[in-house]
Design goal:
The chain is α+β, with helices and mostly antiparallel strands. It folds into two domains: 98 residues, Double Stranded RNA Binding Domain (2-Layer Sandwich), CATH 3.30.160; 86 residues, Sigma 54 modulation/S30EA ribosomal protein, C-terminal domain (SHC Adaptor Protein, 2-Layer Sandwich), CATH 3.30.505.50. It has a five-stranded mixed β-sheet. A four-stranded mixed β-sheet has the order 1-2-3-4. α1 packs parallel to α2. The longest helix has 18 residues. It starts with a strand and ends in a 6-residue tail after the last strand. The model has no long low-confidence stretch (mean pLDDT 82). Interacts with 100S ribosomes. One of its GO terms (biological process) is negative regulation of translational elongation. InterPro entries: HPF/YfiA_ribosome-assoc (IPR050574), HPF_long/plastid (IPR034694), RHF-like (IPR036567), RHF/RaiA (IPR003489), Ribosom_S30AE_C (IPR032528), Ribosom_S30AE_C_sf (IPR038416).
Length: 192
Amino acid sequence: MRYQVSGKQIDIGEALQAHVQSQIDAVVEKYSGRPTDALCVFSRDGSAFSCETVLHLSSGMTVQARANEHDIYAACDSAVAKMEKQLRRYKRRLKNHNKERTTPVELFGASSYILASSETEEETEPDTLQPVIVAEMETRIPTLSVGEAVMQMELHGAPVLVFRNEKQGSGVNVVYRRDDGNVGWIDPNTAG
């Protein structure tokens, strides 16, 4: 497994890198048999340290966690503990997912844009309804079943996930977390 341990304006020593690897190895050995790579990024968040971990599994699924603590090692331990909780919660589904899926999840490229906020100090009417594009980047859209998409959204801790529905081939679908706590699913292919 490949590890990438880095810091944003923080010097990461060998001892911390070894600690990250040993913590993630323990979790991976316990819950997931086939990871491909792990990314761990440390940064300062005021007086505390922030640790963000991302673990990519060979099945195409991704587990992500973030934690803030006053000690950098404690931040790492908290993030890995959150990741372990997610893997423990979905262990059965991940194992079933690996049995059913013989090939990795297909990923398709798409463009992703960041639009400028419309909040301005003046309450004037804009000249045009076209938003200002701040940044453009490449993103990947996975081909998943609806159940896998919900699991992936929850593993990421994301409020929304766009995916291609593997049952319908090329249809783009969306699952999202609703305000009432339930999960919503938008499927444009079944619209009448």
